[in-house]
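As a next step, we paired sequence with structure tokens, yielding the entry below.
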Amino acid sequence: MKPQSASPYARSACFRLAPVALALALAAALSPAYAQNHGHDHARPADASDDPFKPVYIVTSRQTFDAGVQSLAKNASGLSNAIGKPLVIAELKTHQLPDLIRHVHENEKRCGGYFAFDSRREAEDFVKADRSREAIETLFATYTVDNQATVNPWLSQVSEANIRGTINHLSTQYPNRYYASTHGRTSATWIKDTWLALANGRSDVSAELYTGCTNCSTQPSAILTIQGSELPNEVVVLGAHLDSISSSGSGDAMNAPGADDDASGIATLTEVLRVALASGYKPKRTIKFMGYAAEEVGLRGSKAIATDFKNRGVNVVGVLQLDMTNYRNGGANPVRLVTDYSNSALQQFLRDLHATYLGGTLGSYTCGYGCSDHASWTASGFPAAIYFESGTSGGGYSPYIHSPSDTLANMGNSAANSVPFAKLGLAFVGELGKTAGSGPGPGPGTQTYSNATAYAINDNATVDSPIPVSGRTGNGPANAQVYVSIVHTYRGDLKVDLVAPDGSLYNLHNRSGGSADNLEQTYTVDVSSEALNGQWKLRVNDNGPGDTGRIVKWSITF
């Protein structure tokens, strides 16, 4: 993880490498030119032949740029992302990256703070494609807490010893889990195999090593899938990152145990999976457990997966991130909820889970721009949220991360602090995945069907976004809820209709709103004369020149 406020230990540890060596290492870490191509198993590490004067294009906040980065950069241009945050794209040389990192650490007391690209076009496209606003503001599903019959029996089964054992294995059996080391791949394979073994041969459970990240070197992400039985196209994700990093050593010799950051998150997920599968649990929705590659070098693994899901139109209804769950030294509350760069409705759902299944006070924390893998899902337009460890009495986090001292010994040789996170992970699985054959929740009574694939709205053109519905009986209700999210620079050009499976049109919006931007609204529609099963469509017709946009997402609930 890249928390907002760096500890003195972590800040000093970041700069033990000589500046030129650090520049070369960062060139490899931040430039896709040095990374593998998809389908290959090897990447060329940085060495003396790498060019420290190679241009690097960064996207950073206006605040960070004005506070000191402007003295390093040239050819800067300002712009804003989807939530209106002022950003800057600027050009540096690779050897200047240590100065940029030093500025962020020493002056802003945090890690991260920027994204790096090989070209200005890549940086511009990254900002233009940002879908954070819809990810933060949109209601993607109805989040209910009504599956206590499944969740409550799970909670007493959580084993501190199991969590501790997994943390110990990941932090001692490999010198590191660095994305570009051989241990990075070996540890990922162990996680995948360990997860799959917990399924004991179930046909509805599968696991894979995801190799679709083109700049993750040889490290894959690990993904286990429990296929949903009733709503298989609605996907629930629980994730943690499997890599580690340290200022001590490099490559295979790097000393990066990463016990808290983030062996604790992987170990917590592993215990959640063990308890759920041991009970024979079969969810309504599809559930995916993910161990992300290369988080410590720019959220690369999670960004690749989230981008892939966006491009394929996967309907993700909720993402829970667990990054650092086991350090507590005077922290007031056992668990904290991160309150920035995450979906507002999902945050409330996490509060409700905590109140129902743990009780007590849930703390809060702001971790800043791009601090962990939930940010990748947010940037791709998906609902994500994150629980975070208790930390210190002053509100900080573990002082040992990113160093050889991030060990189980420095957490009291105990995983007790991770136990509440495992219980909350089980609550998230049971309450968002629901249980096959049970009610209420998303079942035969009321279901929400969504399409989050972006469809371009061109001038004077018509576009349809389809949603197939099957497995239902009878006709629709008189009060179906149709949610529409459209980005467009002149909504007065737009006519928007719901198209029933038999072709009947139900008008939702007819060229009103004048020159105002965008259309985001929920409509109540009487579809009682329509059969539920079949292909429903949202049809958008642009009736004027000069303004274009896209269908961001729509859903129908009946």
